[in-house]
Write a structure and sequence with these properties.
Blueprint (H helix, E strand, L loop, with lengths): L2 E3 L7 E4 L1 H8 L3 H9 L6 E2 L5 E4 H15 L1 H9 L5 E12 L2 E8 L2 E8 H6 L7 E5 L11
Antiparallel strand pairs: 1-2, 2-4, 3-4, 5-6, 5-8, 6-7
Helix pairs in contact: 1-2
């Protein structure tokens, strides 16, 4: 069950059941419960006393847990020479004709990539899945904000 809540002046944030958060992080249900109790991951209590985990918390831990629990990702990183890899969650996949627009949420930032529709279908990209953006550019500009 996914819920949106509104805190005092905060943006709406999706709340996940612990089992859903564990699936996204690719960890076991008992592990996520331990993280909740040890306050490694922030949770919100429902009126019935159940824990719900804000999607932002899952996003915050996504890269750290991938590095520790995702040996397949480590293997992929070894096979790809690019080091500018940002792990996030797929927000949207829009397929139109031969092209697909994929938007990743990384923390509170969004990255959009245009890939072939065939690639998006072969990878079976869907919102909510984790994915990595591999950035390769001859120039990177920094803007002080």
């Amino acid at each position: 069950m996914k819920r949106n809540v509104r805190g005092g002046g905060e943006q709406r944030e999706e709340l996940l059941r612990p089992r859903e958060a564990a699936l996204q992080l690719r960890i076991s249900f008992p592990t996520i419960k331990q993280w909740i109790y040890s306050r490694k991951i922030r949770s919100v209590r429902t009126a019935g006393g159940h824990h719900r985990i804000p999607q932002g918390e899952v996003d915050r831990l996504l890269f750290r847990t991938r590095a520790k629990t995702g040996p397949e990702r480590q293997d992929l990183m070894r096979r790809v020479s690019g080091r500018n890899q940002l792990v996030g969650r797929i927000e949207e996949v829009r397929i139109s004709g031969l092209m697909a627009e994929v938007t990743l949420s990384i923390g509170e930032q969004r990255i959009t990539s245009i890939i072939t529709a065939r690639s998006a279908r072969e990878m079976q990209l869907k919102p909510g899945q984790s994915a990595a953006a591999l950035i390769k550019a001859t120039e990177v500009m920094i803007l002080r904000v």
